[in-house]
Amino acid sequence: MKKRVLSLVLALVMVLGLAACGGGNDAPKDNNQSQTSQPAPADNKTPDPAPAADKKTYNIGVSIYQFNDNFMTLYRNELENYFGTLNSDTVEYKVNIQDGKNDMAEQTNQIQNFITQGMDLIICNPVQTSSADTLIDLAVDAGIPMVLINREPLGVDANGNTVDESYPGIVDNDKVCYVGADARQSGTYQGEIVAALDNKGDMNGDGKVSYVMIIGDPENPDAQYRTEFSIKALTDAGVEVEELTAQIGNWDTNQGQQIAQNALNQFGDQIDVIFCNNDGMALGAAAAIEQAGRKVGENILLLGVDALEECQQMVQNGTMTGTVLNDHVGQSHAAVDVAVQLLNGEAIQNYYWVDYVKVDANYFK
After folding, report:
1. How distant, in Å, are the alpha carbons of 22, 203, 274, 327, 358 from that of 283?
2. Residue 217 CA: distances (Å) to CA of 53, 102, 205, 247, 342
3. Which residue(s) pair with 274 in the sheet?
4. I want to staple 93 with a disulfide (CB 3.0 to 4.6 A). Which of 7, 70, 83, 331 is the partner?
5. What is the radius of gyration, based on Cα positions, of the chain?
6. Dihedral (C-alpha) 357, 222, 308, 251: value to the nearest 10 degrees?
7. Each residue's pLDDT tens digit, 259-293
8. What pTM, to 2 d.p., does this model score?
9. Rounded Cα gap, residues 316 and 311, in angstroms
10. Rounded to an integer, what distance in angstroms lies between the CA atom of residue 263 and that of residue 259?
């Protein structure tokens, strides 16, 4: 009997042990517990962020004929700033601006370096407009789009018509264009400012307008056209003119001052008007006029181009007769806009023109 009881106890112990071992799978579920599977406990790790959209980066090489130029300083700064405003989560424009130092060999080397570096686009303000074809050919042969700015290459007039068959120009090239302003207009505006005065510029009353012309760069079309068309506007208005002297100032303030000083010493009261191809030289001429004891608006007139802020103030206070707004904002923005079109593979024109604005006393009324 004892053996039988002991066998039953051992059998019961074995059954209970097996039940305990299988309880993880077969145990009855709590009626208050959800029948759905539960998430695994958090491991406190930050989930990986969603992959960012691919950002396209464009590298743009810019060569400016020389940094030591009042107008081109404004231009290049605005060019870089405007590119910066176009950066976004999907596109970035990296701009590398170089100083050509008014040296064609230096600028040619810069263009070659841009090509070696694999720039996506080149913007060039040529040192020598007559040699722009060399720079264009380098870019075209490398398959890199080029936007020429501010200094118009020779060979094509303002309407895009070829005037020099030996110069390849940029007409019909779908990856090269020029962005600038028609210098004929700026020269015309200078002459019109003078012709609109009651005495039509005849400050000494001798019946003719005797002038000094301070020229920027003799091979630059801007200098050529401003020189020619400022006087043409006077003769078209029926004004008799006399050129006392025309000297090359290379866009430089110090040279402008020296030329004006020499002319004032030589011709004195004969001088009615000093025309300057840009405001930089006009600032130098203004200093020479003051040193000579002459007064703009009373016994002499002074004209420039670019409408630098300082020169606009001088027009307002009467120490400069007038200037012409060379719109660095409009031109630089137009250059960037067409550069983006080229980078996007869009069709472009070969020429983009931005109008000048006449700045005289009436401009501020």
Report:
1. 100, 21, 11, 19, 18
2. 49, 11, 32, 10, 31
3. 212, 302
4. 83
5. 37
6. -160
7. 999 999 999 999 999 999 999 999 999 999 999 99
8. 0.75
9. 9
10. 6
